[in-house]
């Protein structure tokens, strides 16, 4: 019996699937199947039917109860379905009993999400993380599919005396999991070094987070002016993407596009992707993107907040970004906090509406702890001038006839300390020149103006 988990290779024909949703409070609604159907389509399945069930508690043997199981079996037979997808997590015993009753494979929500991640993974790190999550999940549903790994070790003398098939599979599975953990740990250490380098340079990180299919990658593309993969499907983006973005009135930041969250996100998946999610938990600002046209947008936002709390990102400043206003029909612009203490912005990532307000809001939040300082750098300290440009946002700059640079910078206290620690810096370089000193109309003929131009942000329209 083939498994739904695979390496992303295309199938000649889509598998026919029956969707099952069981409610433990109230009746089953058509909307309860919408997200599950989206997941099934993202995995490449063809939905052939839906079955709703209502129980106070799950049946310990078949999850849905004996009568409902036979109803599903009849539908499977009539539709010629290849598998049944259950919208909840089920135990290995329930999965095995259901497969015997239904005569086809049974996949729960967790395994379905893992399969989608296997399809979407593109980078070596992403593939390692997906495989680790899959093996952790499959370790509770251990089958005799791992003994082929013994051939890599020669086989003879590998197993202890009296070791059973199940014990051998479990040992080989554990060895593979530990191997993946070591490889992911090496990748995580490299990622941590890059984060430390960014912190040393004083460049803040802005991470885009949100429910899956909220338009995070479209927003990323619009801000950066690139064309990362986007699609109207769940989990279109899996591997994180990071690019530099110049924020007007602030300076450079690192913008990070991350994997989307979803209700019931498998715990094994969260653990496996922790090295990637650390980019979120160490960010300076989170852009919480949600679908303004979705009627369940508040529930989805609450689910994202729960995941952020789980990964230790609950205290990071965030800005709510309601996307897809071209569908919801609302106007772009700022959203009042309504007593929640958090403001937001409504935007349309596909045509750029509301992006100016979004960039202003980002600049305002990141610039809360910023200060304005002025410094005079002698002509002999060109390296110090270059380092100042790298560490701080240079608002304006002039150079006099002696070649002395006078710079007005926007920065924070930590970066001021970094500048003061640079080779060749002297405290006398700080000055108290008034802001209008940089007004070109007040400069004499002997002063050459080199005002630092405001960075241009590209927008992709359409």
Explain this structure.
The chain has 462 residues and is α/β, with parallel strands linked by helices. The protein folds into 4 domains: 16-117, Rossmann fold; 122-155 and 164-202; 203-366, 3-Layer(aba) Sandwich (Rossmann fold); 371-449, 2-Layer Sandwich (Alpha-Beta Plaits), CATH 3.30.70. Helices cover 37% and strands 20% of the residues. It contains 14 helices and 16 strands. The strands form 3 sheets. The chain has a 7-stranded mixed sheet with strand order 6-7-5-8-9-11-10, sandwiched between helices. The chain has a 5-stranded antiparallel sheet with strand order 15-12-14-13-16. Strands 2-1-3-4 form a 4-stranded parallel sheet, sandwiched between helices. A hairpin with an 8-residue loop joins strand 10 and strand 11. The radius of gyration is 28 Å and the shape is elongated. It starts with 14 loop residues before the first strand and ends in a 13-residue tail after the last strand.
Judging by the overall fold, what is the CATH architecture of the largest domain? 3-Layer(aba) Sandwich
**CATH class identity of the largest domain:** Alpha Beta
Instruction: Determine the structural class based on helices, strands and strand pairing.
Output: alpha/beta
Shape: elongated
CATH topology label of the largest domain:
Rossmann fold
Largest sheet report: 7 strands, mixed
Spatial strand arrangement across the major sheet: 6-7-5-8-9-11-10
Q: What amount of the residues lies in strands? A: 15-25%
Order of helices and strands: EHEHEHEHHHEHEEHHEHEHEEHEHEEHEE
Report low-confidence residues grouped into runs of 5 or more.
1-7, 144-148, 150-162, 229-234, 440-462
| Beta-strand segment tally | 16
How many helices? 14
Instruction: Please compute the radius of gyration using only Cα atoms.
Output: 28 Å
Distance between the termini: 45 Å
Fourth-tier CATH superfamily name of the largest domain: P-loop containing nucleotide triphosphate hydrolases
What integer is the average pLDDT? 78
Total discrete domains: 4
- Helix proportion of residues, in percent? 25-40%
- What kind of assembly state do the chains in view correspond to? single chain
